[in-house]
Structure prediction request, 71 residues.
Amino acid sequence: MDPEFGAPPIQANEPLLYPIYGVCKQLDVPVFLMSGPTTPNLEFDNPVAAGKVAWTFSGLPSSATTVFIRM
Prediction:
């Protein structure tokens, strides 16, 4: 999931996404969240948001990837 690419962009810990995370946890479906400088607006690409999702939905099979590119 890359919610920061949505229209409007949102962070991974936006409560609007909580029902999706809840169903994924219930069905044991992994959630993959990405974070890095490839998004159109770095303001919405905060790796802390993925951590908050993991904390709120403990037991949710998930993976978060952070990519940093040195310029």
